[in-house]
């Protein structure tokens, strides 16, 4: 299966232990939604999530492309790579619907922080085609740590699964976390709103 090849381009950061993790409790959703979010993500939800992520990532990666057909081709290729990446995690790491929503939130927040820091002329993590795989892996790792009581798939599993150096993966995770100012909590209402937006992507 073809997946995104993760390439490390983050600036190494000092190792910082995450002392506090918050667990997200799903409420104010229908029983069917709750069951779906707690279970391994369905293929249709993976496709919707991938489409949603591609919508805001492609505007960053391919905004300089002048030819519309070139942009569409690159966007569709990116969608297939992200979809295959999540399908791989569904098969081998049982990634849940909740973890996909949280991953989407983290990637979106990283892009927003990148835009803000760029305007303020700060040192930033620049998302590119080459490091997009690393960005997704770090987002998934943090999402699982935020949601799961006991994290089953640790960084060493991801390093082995995607052929990455464990030390560099750890540094990348910290760089990602630092870029978000160590604030990655997702409010309940925001979670439900994002989940609804992802679902609507499949209907559009």
TrEMBL record:
Gene3D superfamilies cross-referenced by the UniProt entry: Cyclin-like
Pfam families for this protein: Cyclin
GO molecular function: protein kinase binding
The protein's name: Cyclin N-terminal domain-containing protein
Organism field: Streblomastix strix
């Amino acid at each position: 299966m073809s997946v995104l090849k993760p390439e490390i381009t983050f600036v190494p950061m000092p190792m910082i232990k995450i002392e506090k993790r918050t667990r997200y409790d799903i409420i104010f959703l229908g029983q069917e939604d709750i069951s779906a979010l707690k279970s391994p993500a369905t293929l249709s939800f993976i496709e919707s999530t991938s489409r949603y992520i591609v919508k805001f990532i492609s505007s960053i990666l391919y905004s300089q492309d002048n030819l519309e057909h070139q942009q569409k081709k690159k966007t569709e290729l990116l969608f297939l790579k992200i979809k295959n990446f999540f399908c791989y995690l569904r098969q081998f790491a049982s990634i849940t619907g909740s973890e996909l929503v949280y991953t989407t939130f983290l990637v979106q927040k990283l892009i927003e922080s990148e835009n803000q820091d760029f305007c303020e002329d700060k040192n930033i993590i620049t998302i590119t085609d080459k490091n997009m795989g690393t960005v997704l892996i770090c987002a998934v790792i943090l999402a699982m740590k935020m949601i799961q009581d006991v994290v089953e798939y640790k960084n060493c599993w991801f390093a082995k699964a995607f052929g990455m150096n464990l030390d560099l993966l750890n540094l990348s995770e910290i760089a990602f976390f630092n870029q978000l100012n160590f604030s990655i909590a997702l409010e309940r209402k925001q979670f439900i709103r994002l989940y609804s937006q992802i679902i609507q992507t499949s209907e559009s």
